[in-house]
Amino acid sequence: MLLQIQSRSFMMRTLALVALVGLAVVPVCSPVVGDDEKKEIALNGDAYAILNRYCFECHGRDRQDGGLRLDSRQALLEGGDSGAIVDLANVDESELLRRITLPKSDSEVMPKRGDLLTKSDLSKIEQWLKAGAVWSDKAATQKHWSYVAPKKSDLPKLDDREFLNPIDSFVAQRLYAEGLDFAPPADPSVIARRIYFDVIGLPPSVRDVESFVSDASCGLESAVSGLVDKLLASPQYGDKWARPWLDAARYADSHGFQRDDLHELWAYRDWVIRALNEDMPFDRFTIEQLAGDLMPDATESQKIATGFNRCSPCNVEAGTDPEENRFNQVVDRVNTLGYAWLGSSLECAQCHDHKYDPFTQREYYGLFAFFNQTELEADRTNPKALGSIKFMGPYMQIQNEASSQRIVELESKIKGAKQRLASQQKRADKLATNAQSDFKNQSPLQPLAFESLSGASHELLDDQSILLREDAPDTDTYLVTVSVQDMKLSGLLIEAISDPSLPGNGPGRGDAKRPNFVLSTFEVYPVDGEGKPSKTRMALTDAIADFEQANFQASKALDEDEKTGWAINPQFGKSHWAAFRIQDPASLDGVNHLQLKLVQNFGAARTIGRLRVSALTGDYPKAFSKATVEDPKVAKLQKEIAGLEQSLRKIDIAKTLVTREVDVPRMSTMFSRGDFRSPTNPIEPHTPSVLHSFKSNGLKNRLDLAQWLVSPENPLVGRVIVNRMWGEVFGNGLVSTPEDFGLKGEPPSHPELLDWLAVDFVEQGWSQKKILRRILTSQTYLQSSHMTSQQIDRDPNNALLGRGSRFRLPAESIRDNALAIAGLLSSKQFGPPIRPPQPKGLWAKVGGQAYEYETSEGEDKYRRGIYVVLKRMSPYPSFVTFDATARLACRVKRGRSNTPLQALTLLNDPVYVEAAEAFADRVRKDSTGSLEDQLTYAFRLAVARAPKDFELSALKNLFQQEKEFTKQPVPEDAAWYSVASALLNLDETITKE
Amino acid sequence: MTPITYVESRRGFLNQTGVGLGMAALGSLLQQSNLRADNPLDIKVGHFAPKAKSVIYLHMIGAPSQLDLFDPKPELVKRDKEVCPDSLLAGRKFAFIGGELRLSGSPFKFAQHGKCGHQISQLLPHLATVADELCMVHTMHTEEINHAPAQIFLHTGFGRGGRPSLGSWVTYGLGSENQDLPAYVVLLSGPPGGAGSSLYSSGFLPSVHQGIQFRSEGESVLYLNNPEGHPSDSRRRVLDTLGTLNKSHLDEVGDPEIATRIDQYEMAYKMQTSVPELMEITEESAETMTLYGAKPGKASFANNCLLARRLVERGVRLIELYDSDWDHHNNLSTRLSAKCKEVDQAAAALITDLKQRGMLDETLVIWGSEFGRTPLAQGIDGTGKKTSPGRDHHKDAYTVWLAGGGIKGGVSYGKTDEFGFGIAENPVHVHDLNATVLHLLGLDHERLTYKYQGREFRLTDVAGHVMRDWLA
After folding, report:
1. Is B12 contained in some domain?
2. Phi and psi torsions of A931, nearest 5°
3. Left, alpha or beta for B105 (phi > 0: left; psi -120 to 50: alpha)?
4. Shortest Cα distance from A433 to chain B (angstroms)?
5. Percentage, residues of chain A above pLDDT 70
6. Helix, strand, or coil here: A194?
7. Of A156, A416, A786, B332, which is most buried with the most CB atoms under 10 A?
8. B328 is in which domain, residue-wise?
9. Residue B309, class by beta-carbon neighbours within 10 Å (0-12 exposed, 13-18 middle, 19+ buried)?
10. pTM score, whole prediction
11. CA contacts within 13 A on the Cβ side of A255
12. How far is CA A3 from the centre of its chain?
């Protein structure tokens, strides 16, 4: 919107053209009709607002750079340190005007930072100075427009035209005032495609287009109305409209930061989709997400909705202070509330009073206090170990009738099997214990040195065991040095001990579900007098263990093959031991120290979490054999249980992150400079005073806050929400800064229309579908988006709405669209996130768990983008290329860039290559006519309209050339692939026309 | 979303890109009607004359120990293993260590190097040979104590994600001198930093400013290669048809975005040649390969340094190298020595090579990390942990060095206290470093702003001073 002023003389010429003024932005306080006095008041008000917006930050009450103040007439006329800046007798030569009209590159330009004044603003300041710079006190005390409750004004009376849809009346009024008119409606096929994208985010089928075109021939308006209603009832509506809301909610499938572990929150995503499909009134939609847990008799669904709060990133990098993390999460929640509901950037007030919007730091922490009572989500597992932060939850299990029954069934089977196992095991354990205690003089060895070659942290516990801590490396090798002086060693006992600090109690370090370890090789070296281990390892034999996983016997730790080893699946969560006999105890004579080398290179952190080494002395029991340890009945039962448990796991006992209030409330305070280490005065929950008053049910909790937010008295929320919906449809909101309705935001292009819609939204029961319907059935919406160069010169951003909008589809829709055109798209909804193909190696593990990126199979691979997994530190690459974000913070408007990487993605990403192949096949399967028929059909699939002759011949030309020059075995295949690829890459294909 | 509007040196990029396809006619149409949307990567003139045109940023992920490399502390060595007096710990925050903390002197020898007499550890013999080129800053400090937040803070001036990286700010402010390659390139040896791709994200700036990773394995740029079975000549025909159809649609619809799209496809096509050509280091002389210690076909820091020089030669604005595994909480002496062997030669070679080719004057090289390491030992602290010693995270004082691109070589800036806990004189905040980097590129950090969510954002937030003492 900013227009570059190249030079002063140019500016002056521009100012002379007063007629131009107002094109960019309607003066917010402008009177409806021009009565001189009112005009003057408006001018004063506008001038004040402009100075406030651009100047007061540095030349106002709090700060006077260059000794200059501009917030009173007297101060303005007095000037600053370097003299007067306004000469009322000779306004054109005023320093003020000179400085604000310089080009951006000039070092003297004002404002020094940020946007320059628009032409319209410049003109108003000049007029105002020429009129004597009259200062109205009213202007200074007038509330900024967005903090005054909206009202429905009377619909404009237009001489010769009547509109059924109020949107059109307001838009027409503005257009007529500029001497302009609506553009003609777009071609019906274009309109059909536009409506499909705007309601369900998918392209229409060829038949859908045909039927709409035929309906439209009998009356465009009724055809539009019918189609909009049909699509609003489609379940795919929620898939489309959830995306912008989830951007605002910063929904993702992982924590963010270094330990970017995946978390389960998809039930919340599904909740949003279902709520939108049901057209849940926006006030309820708000309350359930912010405070569903606090509603009386909260249902499961209402608790799931509070996953909204849990979308805040969570830092569980080892070494993080849990309180700092919690503080940052609360800050994120306050900031999100500001952007998503209030269209306000509250975040400045975390550290100090907002510089230009009327929000104080105290008020910021007033809002903070509402969010300050939720459970800690990450905490130290060991309060003494600063580095021991772990993610805690809270999670809620989700009930599901069909699966519940099966779960009960399986659980009872498992219980029975476990009981049988227990009694059987007792016998076996006894044998094993006997076996272990058979070793006479078994004594733990104190490690003199321990080293993890992967650098894992560890500590020595009192029982001489070593506990590994913090991030687990994928593979590791432990070097343990022990003293064996005068011991008469006959063997060594390795214990892998379970421990509550290990995932699933260990004894492995990988993950809680399968805390296995694999001891790939076990080697022992005598250490000489200088501390150097010998190069020759000692011979070990007769490996036995209390338990051995199939094909992973303890003896495998002694063979040369590093791919095999000792492991204990499925006996997780309990301690295990293995013993190794020293073949030639005599060789130990004179050896005082041994170095034990435990190689564990299976990967995925299948390493021992707590290790103890013991000496076995005296006679290695000869009679000891595996048979005494292994009991086939135990093994059989274990296998049975493992099978049942696997079936149970497959049932997906889904869980989801929810918000829960703490039992004992925390004290809320302000924080000096926004630093969590510097709490200051205690504070009560309260809301910003510039907005409507806060009513409490007595608790002053999140529920009160949510209800306050969607009070019909709230001047912002209705405007903010309808503006965002408008922006989704038209590419730009009526306020083009949807995140900022404050002083520095753009004023609305059509203030009365915005207010009318905002009030209507509440009157219509906060129904988003009704607002969308109203927008989509307007003449404004149906206009052709073709642009003339005159239009581009005069209204490049289409602020006047004198034509339709055309802009590139959002990231997820680009993939959805390609898959739909190719006939691959699955409309399956809900459930855990899906993983379409992506290049190998992108999910590199840094901290936390390692994840294999396993591409989804079957139809899951082709489901809509809203279901694609979002790992914050490695988001789906092609979406990022098309301006999706990692959702690290609330975002209410996406960028729309145009880059070579986008071209490479659509041409070469295997997802799009597969789409092109499928598209090529589909065309030939669906259409068996002439080449022209087939090409026409393909073209219509891609962009809905029929090709022009010229376009058809270009495609035909490509087809024939490809067929001629290709070296592929089936030239026709190659030719069709190229045609399909060209069509999928058309600007028109990825654009909503 | 108005981009900053400097006076532009060149309007439009038709002259720069010389696209085929009857684009000349299109160009004249666009010029007449002033239609062409500005290419955000057009060269822009900064706020004042730049000293550096490009930046090569060597980021040691995990935080190397300044006390073992650049900032010798004889007192610490003298009192090695002594229990640290509480007076030295007041107000300090550590990520992991607690309880009885012990001082930890460096086991490595330091010597003075060059005319300037920089103190450099025995672990960096190659770097010592270019000592006089280096401006050594000993008093860097930051706000964040854990890797991901500190990395994000260093790159974006803010401890949580979502804001643009230094590289994005720079390309936003200056555009690119090469339209056939991304303006901001990222090279990795080892896994990425804890904050993943958010370190080179464009945040709220248009995504054209994001850092693009050139990979050593697989495709060098994601989706660069044509799918199997679809050779380049076929691709060219598809692009020609695509161009023709897009052009006809542009004629009808009149939206300048379509013209931009046509150009992007041509740029993509050019990248398919320019990127592989760039990555082909075998065309370098044997002498150069030896200088860096580069070996073709290997993913290494040495190869990346050489690639960085090749990228600068091609006008790429900002190249960031990430080298991982510098987080030495334990077993520091072995692990740090090993890491230094991996980077010392190549980092020194980069400076030597740039200088030999007359490129160092216009190329700023930075070597640093998200924070430093404690003068305290981690691992023998009496709380039961038994490890060979390492050092914990330290945000209050650490060393980075800069060279070339308007930097005065041989400067040793700032002093830390006798143990290296805190700063004795001339502190340098992350914002100061970033302000200075922008300054060297001709950008005023207070005026390089972007309006988003109602605020004029800066890389340096509301702080930052240009470090004039570093400037040549």
Report:
1. no
2. -55, -45
3. beta
4. 30
5. 92
6. helix
7. B332
8. 42-225+284-470
9. buried
10. 0.75
11. 24
12. 34
Nearest to B454 among A319, A345, A387 (CB): A345
What is the widest separation between alpha-carbon atoms in chain B? 80
**Cα–Cα dist A527/A538, whole Å:** 11
A611 has which bridge partners?
A466, A496
Enumerate the residues of chain B whose CB falls inside 8 A of the CB of residue A322.
none
Under the banding of pLDDT at 50, 70 and 90, the label for residue B340 is: very high
Question: What is the overall mean pLDDT for chain A?
Answer: 87
Q: Do A378 and A316 form a contact (C-beta atoms < 8 A)?
A: yes
Q: Is B340 contained in some domain?
A: yes
What phi and psi values does residue A462 have, to the nearest 5 degrees?
-60, -30
Inside any domain, residue A256: no
Task: Enter the tokens of residue B297.
Answer: 């076909």
Q: What are phi and psi for residue A927, nearest 5 degrees? A: -120, 120
- Average confidence (pLDDT) over A706-715: 96
**What is the band of B12 on the pLDDT scale with cuts at 50, 70, 90?**
very low
Contacts of residue B340, Cβ cutoff 8 Å, sequence gap at least 6? B69, B123, B124
| Residue B51 included in any domain | yes
Secondary structure in 3-state letters for A528-562: CCCCCECCCCCCEEEEEECCCECCECHHHHCCCCC
User: Any bridge partners for residue A262, and if so which?
Assistant: A254
- Chain A residue numbers touching B447 (CB-CB < 8 A): 112-113
Predicted complex ipTM exceeds 0.85: no
Count of domains in chain A?
Answer: 5
Please say which residue of A598, A620, A642 terminates a domain: A620
Q: Is the dihedral of CA B405, B409, B415, B419 positive or negative?
A: positive
- CB-CB under 8 Å, A447 with B245: no
The count of domains in chain B is 1
Give pLDDT, residue B159. 85
Query: Which residue among A873, A888, A968 sits closest to B229, beta carbon to beta carbon?
Result: A968
Query: A787 and A708, same structural domain?
Result: no
- Tell me if A384 and B98 make a contact (CB, 8 A cut-off): yes
Cβ contact B201–A886 (<8 Å): yes
Burial class (CB in 10 A: 0-12, 13-18, 19+), A164: exposed
User: Residue A908 is nearest to which of B94, B226, B386, comparing CB atoms?
Assistant: B226
Q: For B273-309, what is each residue's pLDDT tens digit?
A: 999 999 999 999 999 999 999 998 778 999 999 999 9
Across B13-45, b (16+ Cβ under 10 Å) vs e yields bbebbebebebeebbebbeebebbbbbbbbbbb
Closest to B35 measured CA to CA, from A4, A793, A988: A793
Query: How does strand A669-671 pair with strand A679-682?
Result: antiparallel
How many residues comprise chain A? 993
Do A455 and A390 lie in one domain? The reply is no
For residue A475, the domain's CATH number is 2.60.120
Interface test with chain B among A115, A257, A350, A977, by most B beta carbons within 10 Å: A257
- Please tell me the least confidently modeled range out of A115-129, A656-670, B11-25: B11-25
Question: Which amino acid is present at B52?
Answer: A
| Neighbouring residues of A43: CB distance < 8 A, sequence distance ≥ 6 | A124, A127, A128, A131
Dump pLDDT digits (tens) for A12-53: 333 333 333 333 343 443 334 446 666 666 677 778 888 888
Euclidean distance between CA atoms A78 and A96, whole angstroms: 12
Q: Is residue B270 part of a domain?
A: no
The answer to whether residue A531 scores a pLDDT higher than 90 is no
Phi/psi-derived region of residue B34, left when phi > 0, alpha when psi is between -120 and 50, beta in every other case: left
User: Do A709 and A720 lie in a common domain?
Assistant: no
The one-letter amino acid code at A369 reads A
Domain of residue A367 covers 281-398+654-714
Residues of B in contact with A962 (CB under 8 A): 234, 237
Question: Residue A138, Cβ neighbours under 10 Å: how many?
Answer: 11
Residues A150 and A294 in one domain: no
